[in-house]
Automatic annotation (TrEMBL):
<dbReference type="GO" id="GO:0003677">
    <property type="term" value="F:DNA binding"/>
</dbReference>
<keyword id="KW-0804">Transcription</keyword>
<feature type="domain" description="HTH arsR-type">
    <location>
        <begin position="6"/>
        <end position="99"/>
    </location>
</feature>
<protein>
    <submittedName>
        <fullName>Transcriptional regulator</fullName>
    </submittedName>
</protein>
<dbReference type="InterPro" id="IPR036390">
    <property type="entry name" value="WH_DNA-bd_sf"/>
</dbReference>
<dbReference type="Pfam" id="PF12840">
    <property type="entry name" value="HTH_20"/>
</dbReference>
<keyword id="KW-0805">Transcription regulation</keyword>
<dbReference type="InterPro" id="IPR001845">
    <property type="entry name" value="HTH_ArsR_DNA-bd_dom"/>
</dbReference>
<keyword id="KW-0238">DNA-binding</keyword>
<dbReference type="GO" id="GO:0003700">
    <property type="term" value="F:DNA-binding transcription factor activity"/>
</dbReference>
<dbReference type="InterPro" id="IPR036388">
    <property type="entry name" value="WH-like_DNA-bd_sf"/>
</dbReference>
<dbReference type="InterPro" id="IPR011991">
    <property type="entry name" value="ArsR-like_HTH"/>
</dbReference>
<dbReference type="InterPro" id="IPR051081">
    <property type="entry name" value="HTH_MetalResp_TranReg"/>
</dbReference>
Length: 99
C-alpha cells in the first residue's frame, strides 16, 4: 500500500490536526474511540470521558473539523468513529512529510 505524505501546501491541515490533538480531553476522546474500535454515540463517549453535552459538542466539532473523526446521525442519536486514514496520513507519517 502506498501512503501519500502531506504536500507542502497542506501545512494548515497538519497544524489543525495537531492543534485538535493538543487538548487533554480530546486525546481522551480519541483514546476511548480507539479502545472501543467501533462507532459509538456521542452520549456514550461523553459518559466515558466525563464531559457535559455542550463540552462534548465543542470537542467533537474540533475533532471533526480537523478530519480526525466521522459523525453520522441515526434518528435521534449521533454516532462518532475515528478516521484511521487521517491518523495515518497526518500523525503516523508526520516526520516523513518534513522535507
Amino acid at each position: 500500500m502506498t501512503v501519500e505524505h502531506n504536500a507542502p501546501d497542506d501545512n494548515e491541515t497538519t497544524a489543525k490536526v495537531f492543534k485538535a490533538l493538543s487538548d487533554p480531553v480530546r486525546l481522551e476522546i480519541v483514546r476511548y474511540l480507539k479502545k472501543v474500535g467501533r462507532g459509538v454515540t456521542c452520549e456514550e463517549v461523553g459518559l466515558a470521558v466525563d464531559i457535559t453535552r455542550s463540552a462534548g459538542s465543542y470537542h467533537f466539532r474540533t475533532l471533526r473539523e480537523a478530519g480526525l473523526i466521522h459523525m453520522r446521525k441515526d434518528a435521534r442519536e449521533k454516532y462518532v468513529t475515528l478516521d484511521y486514514e487521517a491518523f495515518d496520513r497526518y500523525v503516523t507519517h508526520f516526520f516523513d512529510s518534513l522535507n
